[in-house]
Amino acid sequence: MAKKKAAVQTPKRSPRRSVLSDEIYEMIKAMIFEHEIAPGSRVNIDALAAQLDVSQTPVREALARLESDDLIAKEPLKGYTATNLLSMEEFNDLFQFRLLIEPWAAEQAAKKIDSTGRAALKGEMQSAKAVLKFEVDYQFQALAEHDTRFHTLIAHISGSSSVATAFERTHCHLHLFRLYMANKLQLIEPESRTQFVQELFEQYYHSGSGQLAIKEHEKIAKAILDQDPKTARSAMHSHIESSLKRFAPSAKEVNQ
Length: 256
Fold this sequence. Notes:
By secondary structure, this protein is mainly alpha-helical. The protein has eleven helices and five strands.
């Protein structure tokens, strides 16, 4: 008599933990940017887990990622704290560093860009235009993320892993947007959030009828795609100096 085959049990499906970890990471990062977790303040894992209605595990995973972003610091026997905002000295040092390496990286990218780099750069510029269709509350965050990807991509296309790694370790855009938002959030009332986002977006990205940062990125990208090293270097230098002028008032105000 033939034996019956054992029924194959379908494994139970459950949400991937990485999805939850990513969500908690983004939520805590937003709390840091929006000053709910103040610079230099202690971060209580139990309290965060209760507030976000999750276990300690995804909170710990998120804090580890934020530590690598230099937004959270961990001290032995003391636990986690939010890192301090950039001081004026650190702010100026960061821009001097950027002025040294990023124009060079753009120049090298124009010389060395290949088909893969072309596709990536064109795709990134398309994504920047696409986010302009988002509601204003989401545009700022989306454009901030584009800003980070754009500069990181050029550092990689330059062909120098040392430059790319050095740039990534500064986490410059995270610190700059945190600095800018901390300054703006000091006087904001909850009911004024929409107006705040609108003003922030206009001050940083708009110049006349167009988005200043996007226009500057387009000029840099075009020079790299045209393999014009001299223009790429000059355009990147001008862009960083322009960013310095936009961020400097925030750096001065929060350091007074």
